[in-house]
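Limitations

Structures in this collection are predictions, not experimental determinations, and the ligand pose is part of the prediction. Treat each record accordingly. The example that follows, with adenosine-5'-triphosphate as the small molecule, is included so readers can see exactly what is and is not provided: the inputs are given verbatim, and the output is the predicted complex.
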Amino acid sequence: MKNSASKATPLPDITLRDIGGLPDEMKEEIHQTLSIIKDPKRSTQLGIEAPKGILLYGPPGTGKTLLAQAMAREIGATFFSSSGAAFTELFVGVGASRVRTLFQNARKQTPAVIFIDEVDALAAKRKAHGGEEAEKTLTELLVQLDGGSDNDGILFIAATNRKDMLDDAFLRPGRIDYSFQVPLPDTTGRREIIDIHAKGKLLAADVVASLDTLAESTSGFSGAELSSLFETASRRAIRDGRQEIDKSDLDFAIDRTILGSTSRTMNDP
Ligand code: ATP
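Predicted complex:
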C-alpha cells in the first residue's frame, strides 16, 4: 500500500462562513486562535504562545473536517490530512515510521496543518488499545508533537467522536492546547446549515416556505445529514425530470434519513 497518509491533500474552497451551527463563543475563540497563528510576532510581544495542537470533538458529521479545512485555508497552510486508522494494523514499525514521515513532509511545506481524523484509533489510552505496536506508534506521535522549534509553522489538528478514549499524555498542553466541542446543531444552527446547502439549488415555492419548519423538525440531525437531505431530494427531482426540488422530494429525503439513522441505531451493538 502506498503511503498516502503523509502527502499534502488539496483543500476545498471552504471558509468558516460555510460552516453552520457553530456556537458564537466557539467562532470567536477560533478567530482569536487563528489571528495568533497568523501573527506570531505580535503574539510573542503580547506574551501569548501560538497553539501547536487543537482537538475537535463531537458527534459524527458535525463539521469537524470542514472546520480543519477552513482553518488551514484561513492561515494559508498546506493541508496534510489522514485518518488515525492509516497508522494502525500495519507491519512492525510502519505506523511509527508513517507518523515520522508525515511530520517530516509537513515541515518541508510550512505553514502546514496536519489533520488526523478519528485520532482515537491512534491515540487511545495506552491500556485500552493494548499491543506493543500501537504503543510505539503513539509514542512516536508524542515525540513528533514535542518537536519544539522544528514544529514552527505547523498546526496539528485532531478530530474524534470519542474524546473519552484519548490518552492523557496526548491531551497534555503543549501537544493539544485547545479542545473545541463541535456539537449537533440546535434549531438556529440547523437553519443556518439548511441555508448553506439549499444555496445553489432550485427550490419550489412550497419548499422555500417550509425551511423554518424543516429546521424545527430535524432535531438530532447532524450537518452531514442535513446536507444529504438536499442531495437526496435533488437526485429524486432529477430522476423524475424536474428542475426544482419540491416538497415531495424533501419529504422522501427526510424519511430516508430517518430510516437510515434508525437502522444504524438498531444495528449498533
Ligand atoms: P466525522 O466525525 O464523521 O469525520 P465530521 O464532523 O468531520 O464527521 P464533516 O466531514 O466535516 O463532519 O461533514 C461532512 C459533510 O457534512 C460536509 O462536507 C458538509 O457537507 C456537511 N456538514 C457537516 N457539518 C456541517 C456544518 N456544520 N455546516 C455545513 N455543512 C456541514
